[in-house]
Specification:
With about 80 residues, the protein is mostly beta strands. The chain has one helix spanning about 30-35, and strands at about 5, 10-15, 20-25, 45-50, 50-55, 70-75. It has a single domain (about 5-70), classed as Ubiquitin-like (UB roll) (Roll), CATH 3.10.20. A hairpin with a 2-residue loop joins strand 4 (about 45-50) and strand 5 (about 50-55). The longest helix is centred in the middle third of the chain and has 7 residues, at about 30-35.
């Protein structure tokens, strides 16, 4: 599903993910973005505009033009 403006055109917005600019569809949630990037939500922590987002809020947190995300992966080892 792509975001559409009132005239029916698709809209993309620019965000930063781990410091790199990326264009995504307007109205995509953090959960949708992680799915698109093939990242399992249980293996990461997401910071949205300098605030950590609770995992249960990923689906309700919509991304907009200029947002900044940091996606931090858990790494196991020993």
């Amino acid at each position: 599903m792509r975001g559409r403006c009132e005239y029916g055109f698709f809209i993309d917005v620019k965000i930063k993910i781990n410091g790199e600019e990326k264009e995504i569809e307007d109205g995509v949630s953090i959960a949708g973005l992680l799915e698109e990037l093939q990242i399992r939500p249980a293996r990461v922590v997401v910071e949205h505009n300098r605030h950590i987002v609770a995992r249960d809020a990923y689906g309700a947190t919509l991304l907009a033009e200029g947002d900044a995300l940091e996606v931090v992966h858990f790494v196991g080892g020993g």
